[in-house]
Amino acid sequence: MLRTYRALLGNGPLARLLAGEFISAIGDWLYLVALLILVYERPDASPVLLGIVGAARVLPYVFLSVPAGIVADRYDRRLVLLGTDLARGTIMLLMAALVAVDGPLLPIVGLAILATCFSAFFGPAIGAYLPRLVRDESELGPANSAWASLDSLAFAVGPAIGGAIILATGGLTLAFLLNAASFVIVAFVLWRLPSSAAQVRQDATARVSAPVREPAAPPEETPKQPTGTGVAASDALRPLAGLVVISAVGGFVFGGLGVLTVVIATDILHQGAAGTGALNAAIGIGGLVGALAAGVLVLRRRLSAPLVAGGLAMVVGIAALGLTSSLALAAVALAAACLGSSIVDIVSLTLLQRLVPDAARGRAIGVIETMSIAAYAAGSLVLPIAAAPLGLPLLLGACAAACLASIAGGVVILGPGAGRESTISPAAARFVALPVFAGLSPARLEAAAMRLRPEDRPAGTVIIRQGDPADRLYFIVDGTCEVSQTDPAGGPARRLRTMGPDELFGEIGLLTEAPRSATVTATTDTDLLTLEGADFLALVGSGPGLTSRLLDLHRGASAAPAH
Question: With contact defined as beta carbons under 8 Å apart, do 444 and 545 qualify?
Answer without folding.
Answer: yes
